[in-house]
Prior knowledge:
Elements: H1 2-8, H2 24-39, H3 45-69, H4 75-78, H5 81-101, H6 111-115, H7 117-129, H8 151-154, H9 156-180
Helix pairs in contact: 1-5, 2-3, 3-5, 3-9
Amino acid sequence: MLGFIGLVALFPSDFYHLRYYTYLPNFVVMGFYAYLVLKNKPLTNRELRIKTGVIIAITLTFVIYNLLLLPQQTTHQIFQIRNLVMYEIVPLMVIFAWLIFGDKTYYRQRDPLIWAIFSMVYCILSVFAVLSQWAIPHEKASPLPYFFLNVSQNGWLSLLTYVGIITICYVGLGYIMRFVKMK
């Protein structure tokens, strides 16, 4: 419910925020947890593995926001309800719920690599979305959502470096989570 409140705060004027990675895992979390509520049965091993991928996505939202984006925010922006809910409260609730109540399961060795596909697809689509020229208000890198995606300004090496670091973090976090909850 909190995620829904945070996302509703985007509409109608701030719809462009959906181009930012940090909002997308909130949609994924809301959708997956709505599925869990409607299912109302124990999770299969496959669903537990999918759930871990969802948790990694929202965990990285928390990390990206707090390390990269928060220092650039004004006090007013930090305390907006959508920022508090989507970047702090929902990620922390999901992380703590997984740590406290999460089931141990069988993970495949390649699962963390599969979980990283979400961020890779996002980066690829964002770079190609520049062709649409859909402006992002108040964004220095507009029409891109993040400065490091700006290939024309920073070059391919910069893009590949940032994407590589993000991928390593994603996969590394996946292996850590796999280790913590492995049967």
